[in-house]
Amino acid sequence: LDKDGLDLIYTIGSKHNLQEVKGWAIQKTFKSSMQHAGSEIDYRYKTNMKETLEKIFDSYTDTSKKMTLIVLTDGLWEGCVNSNDVEKLIASFITKLKPRLKKWESRWFSIQFVSFGDNEQALGRLQKLDDNMPIEEDVIDTKPWWHHDVSKLILGSMTAGDDKDEPLSPSPLSRPGTSASFHQLSTPERSPSTGKHHRFSFLRR
């Protein structure tokens, strides 16, 4: 994990955002933040994922470190003006970033979408971001939260092998007692060891 810690950012409101949470505090601190944020959700507000990503992209100024953005989302993003706003923004950012890096190494900035919900149009949008982006470099991966290999929910966008399509585990609808568990993603011993030069940020819809 990044020695500087993990960040947690919400698409609506910043009261419960976290920065540079480290080590064994990650699971407890992230869980507490998400519980408090969840209790205050006002569903009248609609997510504009484009605006949130713009702020994150603007803040990526230290390009000496790799960056992986893990987005926990239902993919609805009803606050966006156009259905392809996020697609166009990511394509523009990645295209302009490459010359700034002055290196051939791929996936320096990657984005992992972890999908929740069952809205077909929203899930189709996320899959399109994974499979049909108008950019040369494949830096995006999308997997459902119930994917059978938790590590690939993080590594999927970082390595080509983990980004490949593969048979999925059964839907949670066919597995009684299964429930979403974000703390599985934030437990240090289950997260990948990528060294001190790779930064992670979690973004929650």
TrEMBL record:
Protein's organism? Hyaloscypha variabilis (strain UAMH 11265 / GT02V1 / F) (Meliniomyces variabilis)
Give the Polar residues compositional bias ranges: 176-194
Give the compositionally biased regions (Basic residues): 195-205
In Swiss-Prot or TrEMBL terms, this protein is called VWFA domain-containing protein
Superkingdom is: Eukaryota
Q: Which residue ranges are recorded for the region named Disordered?
A: 161-205
